[in-house]
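Second attempt. The first submission of Cupin domain-containing protein had a stray character pasted in from the spreadsheet, which I only caught after the job came back as garbage. Lesson logged: always re-copy from the clean sequence file. Corrected sequence (137 aa) follows.
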Amino acid sequence: MTLQRATFAGALCALGLLAAAPVLAQADDPAPALKRVEVFRDAVAAPGHEAVVMRVELAPGRQAGRHTHPGDEISYVTEGEGVLLVDGEPPRHLKAGDAFVIKAGRVHDARNDSAAPMHLLGVYVVEKGKPLATPVK
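This time the job returned cleanly.
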């Protein structure tokens, strides 16, 4: 795998942002803000790392919750719209057809202010054996 492919795979990790739903869902809320379904997982060229591909859904009017990933996240918005919130950066409005990359360890969140779900395809290139997402207060 070339460095370019590894970088692309890491970008898909952005969906990791949405993949963190079970970890980030509020305990008092019966319906999670974020739903994720693992599509694929396999080793990559970087020793000790793997790529995880996730389908992600962020519920209308909800927020994923601030978190980090132990590797790069690359996501592509397939439906809907929302706001990407990365610490130290201005909020970024996202809509279907947009993509983004979040580098390993960056604190970030996503918010869906619309009345429809936001769907993403995310790829994470992360260290094997570590949680896909870690909540941040």
